[in-house]
Amino acid sequence: MSAVADAVLPAAGRDSLGARAVRQFRRDRAGLVALAVVGAYLAAAIGVWLGLWAGDWGALTGGKWEPASAAHWFGTNIIGQDIFARTVYSTSVAFEVGLVVALAATALGALLGAVAGYWTGTLLDEALVWAMGVLDAIPFYLFVAAVAFALQDSPYAMQVGMVATFWIGTARLVRGEVMKLRGIEYVEAARAIGLRPGTIITRHILPNTTHILLVQASIAFVGAIKTEVILSFLGIGIRDGVSWGLMIEESTKEVLAGYYNNFLAASLAMFGLVMAFNAFADALQDALDPRKVA
After folding, report:
1. Which fold has domain 2-288?
2. Per residue in 21-46, pLDDT tens?
3. Alpha helices, DSSP H only, in 119-156?
């Protein structure tokens, strides 16, 4: 019974730590402001998903390069499409790419990192560490672009390329944390009562790496959005639809003609989301830091 109690005890501790982390985050005004800004972007994306607005982003509702007006808040592009509608719709695309990549890369990194950390020193651990080193040695954008180009017939080619690299940082951090956790008393107690390694990892070890996974997921989210913009600008990212990257690529022709609305709309929208999410991630990291949580 004592072994079972020891195995259950950390869960209660995590609840207490989570409550203290929430209180710590609520004291961070910059973090709260950043969360509100991210929430506004998310609300815009949800509205697009529900079909409430920006569904007509492709409609030719104006003339060529019309200036900002009551009818077209950000003006129109070269073929008369409303730039504001395209910018709002692109927000949903950014969240789709960011969330898919962040969740998939974090989950994969957590799983492989936990396996490597639990069986540290074994052939399996050495193989995973070697694989991480090899992938790290390849220039990031070159590798993602190569994967996206190789899978260009798939609508998720770009996301697969990003997940194939973004999991490495999470795996390294989780591996180090698991190497410490595997020797703690409640994990040894779980082994003593005959629990399988898979159960120990998923039930008693990985939940104690939540603070790492949350921060890494937020970092992957921002990285995915920036990578999508770069790849779409290069022509190997989003192909069907519209995104901030495609808008910036389109604006390269317009800037030469002295028209900057398309470029400014996409650039400032991306800048606002990335800056707000970075500030939110910093505040979240501080709140989850055991040394700062009080």
Report:
1. MetI-like fold (1.10.3720)
2. 788 888 888 989 999 999 999 999 99
3. 123-137, 140-150
